[in-house]
Amino acid sequence: MRPGAFQGSGLRIYALLYLVFLYAPILLLPVFAFNSGTIIAFPLKGFTTEWFGQMWGNATLRLALRNSLIIAVSSSVLATCLGIFAARASTRFKFPGKGPIMGFIMLPMVLPEIIVAMSLLVVLLGAGIELSILTVIIGHTLICMPYAIAILSTAFSSLDPSLEEAAFDLGESRWGAFRLITLPLVMPGIISALLISFTISLDEFIIAFFLAGSQPTLPTYIFSQLRFPAQIPMIMALGTVLVALSILLLAIGEYFRRRSLSRSGGKNTGGLM
């Protein structure tokens, strides 16, 4: 066997094992969510949808879901609006300290979330702010904004500047050119940033655990229920719904990201991550 062929086979085996290791736990979620047995183990007992019924009938779960949706919608809108300003400034203008300022804004993307959460907790408590849904929205906006900026910067940088210049030549103001020309062209990128920020906020646990106070969110509720074996099948059903929702939102976000690139004439360089 040629060395190159051996290396190619080894690489394929490694990639297959990696994918199995990465996705097998996720694929097992729906398997046990529809299993009638209360113990998460093989062999399976039978098919049932009882755990999904328990999930929708749980009042605390509904409260946690409502809180998470409020937080996710609010933080995704704030992060995307702030991301529009930052992406616009970084791609269209030159100003002193541009590199350090943008690096500082993008820092939450690489910092450990537990460090961000502890820092926010100390600052908020020191300022006398009571922990609530609002403090979680602040934290989630902080960590979602770098992802929104990364997506929106691609949308703005791939936009042809001559389109705005033509609008200026025709007598439009800067705001008019942005509203009538730029905004519609980057709208798919804005929608993509909204969806990605929503997904990140909905699934985020560490900052919600530190900053939610007595208000439960969906991830913190799931964590609290893992101590009770009788609740595990219902958590499996909930996890199945969350995985399906996350995949759907990411797929829609990727669609709008690719649509933004095609509309603005940019090159598609791959996925979101």
Can you lay out the helices and strands and say which pair or pack?
Layout: H1 3-33, H2 50-56, H3 59-92, H4 98-105, H5 113-126, H6 133-157, H7 161-169, H8 174-203, H9 206-211, H10 218-225, H11 232-264
Helix pairs in contact: 1-11, 2-11, 3-6, 3-8, 3-10, 6-8, 7-8, 8-11
What does this molecule look like?
With 273 residues, the protein is mainly alpha-helical. It has a domain at 58-161 and 190-255: MetI-like fold. 75% of the residues lie in helices and 0% in strands. It is built from 11 helices and no strands. The chain has helices at residues 3-33, 50-56, 59-92, 98-105, 113-126, 133-157, 161-169, 174-203, 206-211, 218-225, 232-264. The longest helix is centred in the N-terminal third of the chain and has 34 residues, at 59-92. It is globular, with a radius of gyration of 23 Å. The relative contact order is 0.14. Keywords: Cell membrane, Membrane, Transmembrane, Transmembrane helix, Transport. InterPro entries: Bact_Polyamine_Transport (IPR051789), MetI-like (IPR000515), MetI-like_sf (IPR035906). One of its GO terms (biological process) is transmembrane transport.
